[in-house]
Write a structure and sequence with these properties.
Length: 542
C-alpha cells in the first residue's frame, strides 16, 4: 500500500541511524578504556556528538513518527492529502538531519546532543536541528487532523485508544519543543551567526530542559502504546482498562513538562523553592508509570488464568516466552525497574548532588531509553515491518530476534551496571580517557571502563544482528500476511468516562501547570541574568 512506503521510509532512517550511532558508541567505550586512539585526528567529542544526536534525537524521532503514522493510519485512516503532507514532514526531517550530521562530521559542531552554551556550533547545526523539529510538527498536525476527521465522521463515539495516545504524545511534543525552538531561533542561531557577543547560558539551559525532560517521555510513550495495546494482543489477552490507559497518558501530558529543573538541581541562579516544586511534580510523573505496571501485569495474569493456569505464578510461566514480539518488550519492562529507581534517585535533590555529571547518569539512560524503549521498538519492528512489506516473521527470524534480545540484555547489563558503580565512585561522564594527573581514584575506575568496553562490544554485535534482521524482514523474508496486533478491551472493564476526551480541559491544566512552574523563575533568570558568557568554539581556535 502507498502509505506503507511512508511508514517504512521513517524506519529506514531509524535503522541506518542505529548502525552509525551504535558504531560511535563502541568507539567511545574503547577510547574511554584507554585501549584505542581515534584515527585521522577525529576528536572524542565529535563521535560523542554523533552518538547522542543520531541515536537520541534522530533514531527515536524517525521511529516514533513512522510508528505513530502507522497507528493512526490503522485506526483512523489516512487520506491522500494527509499522506502527501506526511511525506513533506519526512523530507523536512531528513534534510534537517543531513545538514546537522554534515556539520558534526566536519568537526564544526562537537557540542553534544544537549548543545549547551557557551559551546558554539556552526549555524547550520542549529538550522538542521530546527528543520528536524519543524518536520516533526508537520507530522503532529497531520496526526491531529486525522483524529479530527475521524471524530467528525464518528460523532459521539470515543476515539480509538491508539489514536488518542498518539495525539497526547504529539501535543506534549509540540508544547515541549516550543522551548527548544525559542532558544535555537532567538538565542543560538543569531549568536552563532555572530550577532551578539554573549549568550544567557542559564536561559538557554532552562529552555533546553523545559524540552529535554518531556523529550524522554516522548520516547517512552510509544513504548507504552505497545505495552498497553499491542502486547496484550500478542499474548492472546485484552486491554485491562481503556479508561486507565487514557488517564495514565493524560497524567504524562500534565506532569512531563513542568519538571525540567530536576536536570538543573546543581545550577546556581534558580531559586531552590522552584527546584523543590519541580521535584515534587517530577515524583507525580512516577504515578502513571506505576499505573502502567499494574495494568500490564493485570493483563498478564488475567490472560494466563483465562487459559486455565491456576497456581499463584502458573500464568507467569506460561507467557509466550518464545515469541520475540513479547519477549523483547518484556525485557524492556524489566529493565525499567532499575532504570526507574535510578530516575527517582536522580530526582532526589541531595542524591543528585552525588550522581550529577557522573557516568551514573549515562548508566541511567542506557537502561531507560537504550533498553526499555529501544527493546520495545525492536519488539514492534518484528511485526510492523512484515505487515508493511507483506512478509512473514518466520520461526528462524523469530529465533534470531530472541538471540538478539538476550545479546542486548547481557551487553546492557554489563555496560550499564559498571556505569552505575563507576559513577558512584565519582567518575565523570562525557570525558575521554585521562589519568587525571595520576590520581589514585583513576586506577579504580579503569576496571569499570574495561567492563563497559566489553558490554559495548556485545551491544554492537546486537546492533549488527538487529540491522540484519530489519533488512531481512524488509526485503528478503517470504511473502505472506502478518497480523497488526491491536487488542480489544476486557468486556467487564468500567466504561471510559467521557471527560477523558475533554482535550480543552487537559491541555488547559497542562498549560496552567507550566505557567505555574516556570513563569516566576523565568522572569528571575531574564531579569537577573549575568552579563552572559562568551562563546567557546570547539576545537579551540576554530
Ligand atoms: Fe531520566 C537524566 C529522572 C525516566 C532518560 N534521563 C536522564 C537523561 C536521559 C534520561 C537521557 O531527576 C540524561 C540527560 C542528560 O543528558 O543530561 N528519569 C528520571 C525520573 C524518571 C526518569 C524520575 N529518564 C526516564 C526515562 C527516560 C530517561 C523513561 C528515557 C526514555 N533522569 C532523571 C533525572 C535526571 C535524568 C533527575 C538528571 C540527572 C542529572 O543530574 O543529570 C521516572 O520517569 C522513572 C519512573 C519509573 C519507575 C519504574 C517503575 C517500574 C516499572 C516496571 C514495569 C515492569 C513490568 C514488568 C511491568 C518508578 C514501570 C516487571 C517484571 C518483573 C519480572 C518484575
Amino acid at each position: 500500500k502507498k502509505e506503507s512506503k511512508l511508514y517504512m521510509a521513517f524506519l529506514y532512517v531509524a535503522f541506518a541511524s542505529l548502525l552509525i550511532g551504535g558504531l560511535m558508541g563502541l568507539l567511545q567505550t574503547l577510547v574511554r578504556a584507554g585501549k584505542f586512539t581515534l584515527p585521522f585526528g577525529i576528536n572524542y567529542y565529535q563521535i560523542l556528538t554523533v552518538h547522542g544526536v543520531i541515536l537520541a534525537l534522530v533514531l527515536t524521532t524517525f521511529f516514533i513518527v513512522g510508528f505513530q503514522f502507522s497507528l493512526m493510519g490503522k485506526t483512523t485512516g489516512i487520506s491522500d492529502k494527509q499522506l502527501k503532507v506526511g511525506w513533506v514532514s519526512f523530507w523536512v526531517m531528513l534534510i534537517g538531519t543531513l545538514i546537522t550530521a554534515t556539520m558534526i562530521l566536519l568537526g564544526e559542531a562537537s557540542v553534544l546532543y544537549t548543545f549547551y552554551a557557551p559551546l558554539r556550533a556552526h549555524p547550520l547545526f542549529y538550522i538542521g536541528l530546527s528543520l528536524v523539529i519543524i518536520g516533526s510538527w508537520i507530522a503532529a498536525f497531520v496526526n491531529f487532523r486525522q483524529l479530527y476527521v475521524w471524530k467528525k465522521a464518528h460523532k459521539g463515539q470515543k476515539s480509538p485508544l491508539l489514536a488518542f495516545m498518539v495525539n497526547i504524545n504529539m501535543i506534549m511534543w509540540v508544547i515541549a519543543s516550543l522551548g527548544v525552538a525559542i532558544s535555537v531561533v532567538f538565542q543560538f542561531i543569531p549568536w552563532s551567526l555572530g550577532y551578539g557577543a554573549t549568550i544567557n547560558v542559564l536561559l538557554s539551559r532552562t529552555l533546553f530542559w523545559y524540552f529535554g525532560h518531556p523529550l524522554v517521555y516522548f520516547w517512552l510513550l510509544p513504548a507504552y502504546m505497545a505495552w498497553y495495546v499491542i502486547v496484550p494482543k500478542v499474548i492472546g489477552g485484552k486491554i485491562f482498562s481503556d479508561g486507565l490507559a487514557r488517564l495514565s497518558f493524560i497524567l504524562f501530558l500534565m506532569f512531563s513538562i513542568p519538571v525540567g529543573f530536576h536536570h538543573q538541581l546543581t545550577e546556581p541562579g534558580i531559586n531552590p523553592t522552584w527546584k523543590f516544586i519541580q521535584v515534587v511534580l517530577t515524583f507525580m510523573v512516577v504515578v502513571p508509570t506505576l499505573m502502567t505496571a499494574f495494568s500490564i501485569f493485570a493483563t498478564f495474569e488475567i490472560t494466563g488464568r483465562r487459559k486455565g493456569y491456576k497456581s499463584l505464578f502458573g500464568w507467569f510461566k506460561k507467557l509466550p516466552w518464545k515469541d520475540v514480539r513479547f519477549l523483547a518488550p518484556f525485557i524492556g519492562m524489566v529493565a525499567f525497574i532499575p532504570g526507574g529507581i535510578g530516575g527517582i534517585i536522580n530526582a532526589s535533590h541531595q542524591l543528585n548532588a552525588l550522581v550529577h555529571n557522573t557516568i551514573w547518569v549515562t548508566g541511567h539512560f542506557h537502561l531507560t531509553i537504550a533498553t526499555t524503549v529501544i527493546l520495545t521498538f525492536f519488539g514492534i519492528t518484528y511485526w510492523l515491518v512484515p505487515v508493511l512489506t507483506n512478509r512473514k516473521l518466520t520461526p528462524k527470524i523469530n529465533r534470531l530476534g530472541i538471540i538478539q534480545s538476550f545479546i542486548w540484555a547481557v551487553g546492557m547489563l554489563i555496560m550499564s551496571a559498571s556505569m552505575h558503580i563507576e559513577g558512584l565512585l565519582g567518575a565523570p561522564r562525557r570525558s575521554a580517557f585521562s589519568n587525571y594527573g595520576g590520581a589514585d581514584q583513576v586506577s579504580v575506575w579503569i576496571n569499570y571502563q574495561i567492563a563497559q568496553a566489553v558490554g559495548g562490544t556485545i551491544l554492537f554485535i546486537g546492533i549488527l544482528l538487529m540491522v540484519y534482521i530489519f533488512i531481512k524482514l524488509a526485503f528478503f523474508a517470504p511473502r505472506g500476511e502478518e497480523e497488526y496486533p491491536i487488542a480489544e478491551e476486557e468486556e467487564d472493564a468500567m466504561p471510559t468516562p467521557k471527560v477523558l476526551e475533554n482535550w480543552k480541559l487537559w491541555i488547559g491544566i497542562t498549560i496552567a501547570l507550566i505557567l505555574f512552574a516556570y513563569t516566576i523563575p523565568m522572569i528571575d533568570i531574564i531579569q537577573h541574568s549575568p552579563p552572559g558568557s562568551v562563546p567557546f568554539d570547539f576545537p579551540i581556535g576554530r
